[in-house]
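Box 3.1 A note on notation
Throughout this textbook, protein chains are presented in two layers. The first layer is the amino acid sequence; the second is a token string describing backbone geometry. Keep the layers aligned when reading.
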Amino acid sequence: MVGPYPPPYGGIAIVVRDLLDSPLKEKFDLELLRTQPSGKNEISRFIMDIINLNKKLIDFKPDIVHIQTSYDFGWPKHITYALIAKVYRKKVILHQHGIPINSNYLNGGKLAYIYPPRFVISIVDHVIAISEEIGKIVSLLGRPQKVSVVRNGVNKHILEIGLNKNLDIINDRIGILYMGATTKRKGIIEFLDMIKYFQNEKLNINLSYSIIGTGELDDYIDNFLLENKLTSIVDRRKKILEEEKIDVLKNSDVFVLQSDHEGLPISILESMASGLVIITTPVGGIPDAVKNNENGLLIRPHDVKELINSIRWIVNNPIDLKRIKTSNVDKIKNLYSWDKNILEIINIYNSLSDTRPGINAWASEG
């Protein structure tokens, strides 16, 4: 498997971690090539990944190379890994985590001059799409028989939060959570404007806020909170440990992610599993998981008025708040549990692994 691994705790890194902790590790001889985290000296990091990949292909001799990707600026690196694996005559799975809505993916987008998606789909052996929407888009390139939709799962320790949590409003307080990269595209500016707005509106309940994450707008956030005297009601942390994240999810009621494009964020699934109401946008694979007024609220990206109105609706409808919370926990348990979804990946591995006795022997056992 080729991909990131925490820390840092990005969405794909969490998926990789959970896959390595799943029955995949028990049923297959599975190793991870942990790609270098993004940062300075990208070229040297890329070269190091290529060197390490070649070493794995020579020493470990895998039958399958399972590459985690999304259609972003990491795409050229990830597809280079796929091409190298094909030189070694390996079966290649591309695990597609996201396709930005404005990327012009079907026509190759901004990356067409390097590796057009249509060419990539022709050379890999299988594509795992994390949502129905992503699966449909990839299938339009041709060879739909190569494409399988496998939803991301939620770590069982996170699901236990929602299963054991009191989903009522406690002490007349609603906790509102932003957790993710602090970038403009994910709606952090609107989140801050919403906090400032409710400082001047009287409500029949107290609101508290958590902003967890780091990114390009860290300085903007810190200055905004100081200038508007909001530090006392906002729990602002750039990095947290897994145990701290569990505590944050236990003490929150609402999760907000107002992105303009996404795949299917793990932060949304973890918040659903923890019994939170989701306020988000109908982009990427999100509508697969979040249905408006059923288990969350879908609003337009970067529309602060819609965000304010959504919070006001939640405050004024405590019965619906509990209904939505309960619906989210049930939905994760039934549809987004790794215990169930990992079986689909096992079947894909088996279908591609016709040369490895150990795998075939396990498959024949059932």
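The first helix runs from residue 11 to 20. Residues 2-152+337-365 form a domain with the Rossmann fold fold (CATH 3.40.50.2000).
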